[in-house]
């Protein structure tokens, strides 16, 4: 086990990194954390201290005192002999990676035990844990691609195949706003931009009169922290859409009325029936 690292769970959403840093420093008699790396599971982090700590003392101190009403749970961290490798070229095979990292002249280390290919990355296991520290300090390039190589801590990451969230059907929105959104290209573009920030892409229905629309997930295995993002994807998309619909009419009646009016004028002009007359200044006259 590492003597200067701990794995922490049950971190509150309200806890900022500085808060966590200061809280742990006080409970280790001012042994300062030098790095905090958050895990893929929410509320988890790997803490590295500037020197060895008293694990039992820290564990007991965190049981006695809460941080933002949460009792931090402290665990030891096993010494790792594994590196995680990302940004791998599609041309690069498992054998190529094994031969590269087992070649001290090229990678700076040798003694590869195994290479596991996964979605968008691979895990390289070495005979000696010290090899991981060495290999992660060097730049690496294979098949004209610069690799991202970091120490792999099992407690921080999950290596199961990436599972894309299912498309989300939005059916509980205001029907009037939804009807207007389906007919408004500018509002559709605005929502598309907003959802793009949370890896969502709306699929607009062909019918203008509808009670729902679908949002599909744009995450890929190559997206950084894709598994962590996938776990909160549905919640993030729903929150983003709620905010958008809440702002759609708030204090913005005039632009919406103007766009509705333009849509109405366009439809009336397309009718091309006797008895309809539309002036260019938006005055509509119906004649006998």
The chain-level mean pLDDT equals 82
For the largest sheet, list the strands in their spatial order.
2-3-1-4
**Number of helices, counting only DSSP H or I runs of 4 residues or more:** 10
Net shape: flat
* Radius of gyration over C-alpha positions, nearest whole angstrom: 28 Å
Please estimate the helix content. Answer: 25-40%
What class, by secondary structure content? Answer: alpha+beta
Tell me the total number of β-strands.
Answer: 15
**H and E string:** EHEEHEEHHEEHEEEEHHEEHHHEE
The major β-sheet equals: 4 strands, antiparallel
Summarize the SSE layout with pairings.
Elements: E1 5-9, H1 17-27, E2 33-38, E3 45-49, H2 55-64, E4 73-76, E5 82-86, H3 94-101, H4 104-107, E6 112-118, E7 121-126, H5 129-136, E8 141-142, E9 145-146, E10 148-151, E11 168-170, H6 175-183, H7 185-196, E12 200-203, E13 213-217, H8 226-231, H9 233-249, H10 253-271, E14 276-278, E15 284-286
Write a concise synopsis of the structure shown.
The protein is built from ten helices and 15 strands. It has helices at 17-27, 55-64, 94-101, 104-107, 129-136, 175-183, 185-196, 226-231, 233-249, 253-271; strands at residues 5-9, 33-38, 45-49, 73-76, 82-86, 112-118, 121-126, 141-142, 145-146, 148-151, 168-170, 200-203, 213-217, 276-278, 284-286.
Can you put this structure into words, describing what you see?
The chain is α+β, with helices and mostly antiparallel strands. Helices cover 36% and strands 22% of the residues. The chain is built from ten helices and 15 strands. It has helices spanning 17-27, 55-64, 94-101, 104-107, 129-136, 175-183, 185-196, 226-231, 233-249, 253-271, and strands at 5-9, 33-38, 45-49, 73-76, 82-86, 112-118, 121-126, 141-142, 145-146, 148-151, 168-170, 200-203, 213-217, 276-278, 284-286. The strands form five sheets. A four-stranded antiparallel beta sheet has the order 2-3-1-4, with helices on one face. A hairpin with a 5-residue loop joins strand 14 and strand 15 (284-286).
């Amino acid at each position: 086990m590492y003597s200067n690292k701990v794995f922490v769970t049950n971190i509150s959403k309200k806890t900022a990194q500085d808060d966590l840093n200061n809280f742990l420093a006080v409970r280790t008699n001012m042994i300062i954390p030098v790095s905090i790396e958050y895990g893929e599971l929410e509320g988890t982090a790997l803490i590295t201290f500037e020197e060895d700590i008293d694990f039992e003392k820290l564990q007991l101190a965190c049981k006695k005192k809460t941080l933002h009403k949460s009792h931090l749970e402290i665990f030891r961290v096993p010494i790792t002999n594994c590196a995680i490798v990302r940004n791998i070229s599609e041309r690069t095979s498992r054998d190529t990676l094994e031969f590269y990292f087992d070649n001290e002249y090229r990678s700076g280390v040798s003694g590869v035990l195994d290479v596991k290919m996964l979605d968008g990355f691979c895990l390289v296991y070495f005979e000696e844990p010290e090899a991981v520290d060495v290999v992660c300090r060097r730049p690496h390039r294979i098949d004209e691609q610069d690799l991202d190589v970091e120490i792999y801590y099992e407690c921080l990451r999950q290596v199961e195949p990436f599972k894309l969230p299912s498309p989300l059907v939005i059916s509980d929105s205001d029907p009037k706003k939804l009807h207007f959104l389906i007919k408004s290209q500018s509002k559709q573009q605005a929502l598309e931009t907003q959802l793009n920030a949370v890896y969502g892409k709306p699929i607009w229905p062909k019918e203008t009169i509808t009670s729902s629309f679908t949002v599909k997930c744009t995450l890929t295995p190559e997206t950084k922290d894709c598994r962590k993002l996938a776990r909160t994807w549905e919640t993030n998309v729903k929150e983003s859409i709620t905010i958008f619909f809440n702002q759609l009419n708030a204090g913005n009646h005039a632009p919406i009325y103007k766009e509705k009016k333009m849509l109405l004028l366009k439809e009336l002009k397309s009718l091309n029936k006797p008895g309809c007359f539309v002036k260019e200044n938006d005055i509509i006259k119906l004649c006998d």
